[in-house]
Amino acid sequence: MSFFRRNIVSLTVIGCITAAVLTYFYKPEYFDFIVQPSARSLYERDLKKYPDQLERWNRLSKMAINDSVLSGDSYSEIATSTAQNSFAAGYMVNIAQGESLLATISMDSIQPSWILEAYNNNGMLLESAIANDSMLSLHIKNGEAQRLKIVVQSFLNITDTVQLKVYKQPLLEFPLAGKGNNAIQSFWGVARDGGRRSHEGNDIFADRGHPVVAAADGRISSVRDRGLGGKQIWLRDNLTNSSHYYAHLDSQLVTSGQRVSRGDTIGLVGNTGNARTTPPHLHFGIYKTGGAVDPKPYIWQVPIPEDSQSLPLRPVAIGSGTGANLRSQPNANGGLIRNIQNDTLIILGNSNDWYHIRTADSLAGFAHKSMIRLIEE
Questions:
Q1: Domain containing 362: what range?
Q2: Other CB atoms closer than 10 Å to residue 43's CB: what's the count?
Q3: Where are the transmembrane segments (predicted)?
């Protein structure tokens, strides 16, 4: 290739790159199919035309990120945004190894005007909710123990009320068909053999012959009949990168190397091995690199929270009475943040009989409805 032609090619490449950079700078939406910006990024891009609104938005976002209220295992709230008080709040959730987290916002409109996000403890965005009809939903299911911050924020200058839910779910199927938490009668860590060892699993009781099911899709790595576990099955689960141990079975209905799907019957409850003097039950264990882990969070069933019912709402309220306390959770056992008697408050929403409020100095928390006096306009 001649020197002249090489220069032409170089100039063409430089020109294309320059054109792409300028296009992205002035028309970034042309690249959304590549960049796939979050809902927050898209909204903030529109707000750049209105610096005052963008500053207000960023201030609300910072408050939400700094919130320290706790949502617990199963939480619901009526969240309210008005033209004067846009909704912005953050919720801390502690996730055990083996648990997943779901968060949803149910809306009246199919056009989302709310943002729902999950951040890790270092402030890194993990996931932004996906819009589906009139619902925003996100699902964190990496299965690792962690503290998450769920951030909820409405668009500015809208009047809207939505139903927010944040709740945990186990990663695995309950290993006895049709049974639940009440069937677990012996938990991880209980002393065995006079204290010489501890229980490395959960004992789940049922009648002899009750179906034992695969807790996840996987492959049967071993079918054995020996030792303490008697008739036992080992299932390799790639979802949680672990091996499931089913012991004391009366019957094994699978073979080594067989592929199974979540919910498939793989055996029947019994009391073989060292369980021959006890009522029939399944010993269910989970083993990861390094040894056994507590299986309870992997299978413990948390109820999906019911919808919260709306309380009366006003733009401004006052803490009323000496017992007007701001708490970290919507119950009397929630950690005390501070007393808010005579404080002017903004109401964000309510979780059943507890108002979710924010103080004049930006602290968020919960106060019982009996301790809040609404100010008439």
A1: 309-377
A2: 18
A3: 7-26
pLDDT (tens digit per residue) in 35-90: 458 889 999 999 999 999 999 999 999 999 999 899 889 999 999 999 889 999 99
User: What is residue 129's DSSP assignment?
Assistant: P
CA distance 158 to 161: 10
Find out whether 169 and 99 touch, Cβ atoms under 8 Å: yes
Indicate whether 75 belongs to any domain.
yes
Write the pLDDT tens digit of every residue in 209-234. 999 999 999 999 999 999 999 999 99
pTM of the model: 0.85
The residue to which tokens 């789940």 are assigned: 204
Q: Is residue 45 a part of any domain in this protein? A: no
- What are the φ/ψ torsions at residue 177 (nearest 5 degrees)? -60, 130
Alpha helices (H) in the chain, listed in sequence order: 3-26, 32-35, 39-47, 51-66, 296-299
Give me the CATH number covering residue 124: 2.60.120.380
Q: Do residues 180 and 113 lie in contact, with contact meaning Cβ atoms separated by under 8 Å?
A: no
Is position 51 within any domain? no
Task: Tokens for 281, please give them.
Answer: 């039950």
Is 359:340 a contact under the CB 8 Å cutoff?
yes
Total residue length of the chain: 377
Q: What does residue 62 show for φ and ψ, rounded to 5 degrees? A: -65, -40
Give the tokens for residue 236: 């390799």
> Whose structure tokens read 């103080």?
359
Structure tokens at 250: 């009366």
71 in the same domain as 160:
yes
Choose among 143, 115, 119, 108: nearest CA to 129: 115
CATH classification at residue 359: 2.30.30.40
- Which are the contacts of 236, defined by CB distance < 8 A and separation ≥ 6? 218, 219, 220, 221, 243, 244
- The conformation of residue 241, written as its DSSP 8-state character, comes to T
Structure token pair of residue 313: 């709402």
Distance between the two ends of the chain, CA-based, in angstroms?
Answer: 79
Residue type, 272: T
